[in-house]
Amino acid sequence: MGLYDRLTHYRRFGYLDLDTIAARTSGRRTILAFLGAPLVVPFVFYIPFPGEESVGTAHFSWLALLSPLMFAPYALAISYIAEFLLGVPAWIVFRRYGVRSLPAFAAAGAFMGWLVNLGMQAPTGNLATKPLTVLFNPFDDPYISICIVAGACSAVLFRIIFFWGSKGAKDPK
User: Distance from CA of residue 158 to its chain's centroid?
Assistant: First the structure.
């Protein structure tokens, strides 16, 4: 009797409830993914802004290395709020339709990052005072590209945490 046969035999007769174990693991992984995915956002600030002096192009400076860490509490607060407001509904839709594709997670995360940038522009009055061509041009506002990259990285990390080691986690070719 093979391992699979024994497990189905035990499952059939109540010795081992694989559905409960899978549900518990899924719940734990969901919680870990929601708690861990936004932790990548402060590290995205090390990516150089387009058209700005940055760690990679300027002379070495401790301030350039430490400034993203000084902004980390603010970035984490914004990313956890955005994850609750945008990520949870997106996860419900992805789970309902069985979406596991890495590009789909990255695109949804990038779109959510763009929405977060748009939401941060609204309270400052930039949506009413600046033309839309300036607001959506990443060369005029480098925070657009940083928010998009942060959202995509966070969504990809969420997918990696949740589907780590599961069968079929790799995209079919």
Answer: 5
Alpha-helical (H) ranges within 13-141 are 18-36, 41-44, 62-70, 72-82, 88-97, 102-121, 126-129, 132-135
How far apart, in Å, are the Cα atoms of 33 and each of 106, 135, 158? 15, 31, 5
83 residue type, one letter: E
| Site of tokens 């734990």 | 28
Two tokens at 117? 């940038």
Can you give the pTM of this predicted structure? 0.73
Nearest-CA neighbor of 81 among 22, 34, 48? Answer: 34
- Residue 118 has a pLDDT of 86
Distance of CA 33 to the CA centre of its chain: 9
The pLDDT confidence band at residue 58, using thresholds 50, 70 and 90, is: very low
Q: Tens digit of pLDDT for each residue in 9-52?
A: 544 444 444 444 444 557 888 999 999 999 999 888 777 655 55
CA distance 150 to 44: 6
DSSP state of 54: -
Domain boundaries, the chain: 30-163
Which phi and psi angles does 60 have, rounded to 5°?
-65, 135
